[in-house]
Amino acid sequence: MRKVVLFSNIFPFYSKAFWSLLVEKIDNLRIGIQFYDNRGIKLVDIKKTYSKKNQEKFFKVKNILFKNKHLIYQFGVIYRSIFWNIEKGIFLGDAKVISTWIASLILNIRGIEVVYWTHGLYGKENFLKLYIRKLFYGLADKFIVYERRGKQLMVENGFNPNKIYVIFNSLDYNLNNKIYKGLLSKKDNSTLSNFDNPDKPIICFIGRLTPQKKLEMLINAFNKINEDEYKINLLIIGDGHERKKLEKQASKGIKQKQIFFIGEVYDNYIAGELLFNSALCVSPGNVGLTAIHSLSFGTPVLTHNNFDNQMPEVQAINEGENGGFFVENDLDDLIKKIEIFCLKNRNISKDKCREVITKFYNPNYMFQTFKRLISNNNPLI
Questions:
Q1: Which pTM does this prediction carry?
Q2: How many Å apart are CA 219 and CA 204, to the nearest integer?
Q3: Pairing of strands 29-33, 142-145
Q4: Share in percent of the chain as helix, strand, coil (round to 5)
C-alpha cells in the first residue's frame, strides 16, 4: 500500500484532536516526528494515547541544527524519500530545513506529489527572501496554509489557487464546547476571587510570555486605565522567560489586588473558565492560537492591526463582531480600545464570538480539508 507520509516536527498537545482524526481515519498515513522538545511545549504521549496499531503509524525523525542555528537537517527524511513506497510526501514548508529541499527533489524525480504545509507568504518579505521562498515553493505540487491571506499572497505571486488548501488552525473543539456549555449554567465564579474588586471587568491574556507578545505594553495600558480609579482587573495566563520581568513591572504603582499572574494552565476546564469569565482577551503583539482559544469560550479578542506582523489566526477576528484591532505599538489607541470594550457597554455576544470557531476553526474542518487534498479534490476555499 502506498503511503501518505507527513514529515513533521513535534506533536504538540494542543493539536491532539486534529491529529487523532488523521491517525484513526487514514489507514495509509505515516507521521514522522521528534518524540521530545526542549522549548517547553507540552507534547502528546504517543504510547499512552494510541493503540499499538496506531502507534505504528509514527516514526522518529531527528532535527539537527547547524552551528548558526538558522538551518536544520531532519535525519530520517532522505532515506524514506528514496526507499519508501510513497503516494504523497507532506513536509513543513520551511526553507530553512535543508533536508526538505533534498527530499522534495528526490520525490520530484520519482514522480511523487510533494505538499508543503506552511504559513505561506507574509507580505513583508524582502526581495531575496521572497526569491528564495518562491524557488523553494516551486518544488511543491500543492500547499496547505493556515489562512486565506497566506493563500491570497501566494496567488498574487503566481501560484495556482486550486493547489492551495486553507486548513484553519484549531484546538479541541468538542472538549471546549462541552466545557463552554457547562460554564453557561455554572453559578459560582472562582475566577473573581483573585481580585479585590470582582465587580470590575477582567481583561486577560493567555499564551507564552515571550517578547513577541509585547505584554509590557498591556501592563502599561492597564496601569494608565486604573491610574485615577480602579476600573478593570488583569489576568495573565501562561509562563515564559518574560514572567519575572513582567511581574516586577506589574508590582509598581498597584495598591490593590488588581492583577494576577496565574502561570501555565494545561487543564482545559480551568483555562476555559478563566477565559469565559473575562470581558476581553488582549494580545498587544502577535496573537496566534490565543485568538482561537479565547473565541472558543465566547470572549472577544483585541490585537494590533498590522497583519504583516501577525500570525495567521488573526484572521479569525472580525472587527466589531468578535473583537477588534488597535494601531500597532500605539499605547493610547490600545487604551482607547480596551475602554470601549470594557467600560462603554460594547456588547458582543458569546455566541457571535464562537460562530467563526464552529464554522472554520475546528478539527473536523481541518480533517475535511486534509481529506480533500489527499483525495485530489479542489479546496473548499
A1: 0.92
A2: 11
A3: unpaired
A4: 45, 20, 40
One domain for residues 192 and 288: yes
Domain harbouring 286, CATH code: 3.40.50.2000
Domain contains 381? no
Q: Can you give the residue range of the structural domain that contains 63? A: 3-170+362-374
Element at 113 (helix H, strand E):
strand 113-118
CA-based nearest residue to 281, from 297, 262, 261, 263: 297
Q: Indicate if 307 and 179 belong to the same structural domain.
A: yes
153/234 same-domain check = no
- pLDDT tens-digit profile, the chain (381 residues): 899 999 998 888 899 999 999 999 999 999 999 876 666 678 899 999 999 999 999 999 998 988 766 899 999 999 999 999 999 999 999 999 999 999 999 999 999 999 999 998 888 889 999 999 999 999 999 999 999 999 999 999 999 999 999 999 999 999 999 999 999 987 666 666 778 888 889 999 999 999 999 999 999 999 999 888 888 999 999 999 899 999 999 887 565 578 999 999 989 999 999 999 999 999 999 999 999 999 999 999 999 999 999 999 999 999 999 999 999 999 999 999 999 988 876 678 999 999 999 999 999 999 999 999 999 999 999
Give the chain's domain count: 2
Burial of 12 by CB count in 10 Å (0-12 exposed, 13-18 middle, 19+ buried)?
Answer: middle
Is there a single domain that holds both residue 217 and residue 120? Answer: no
In this structure, the answer to whether residues 343 and 255 fall within a common structural domain is yes
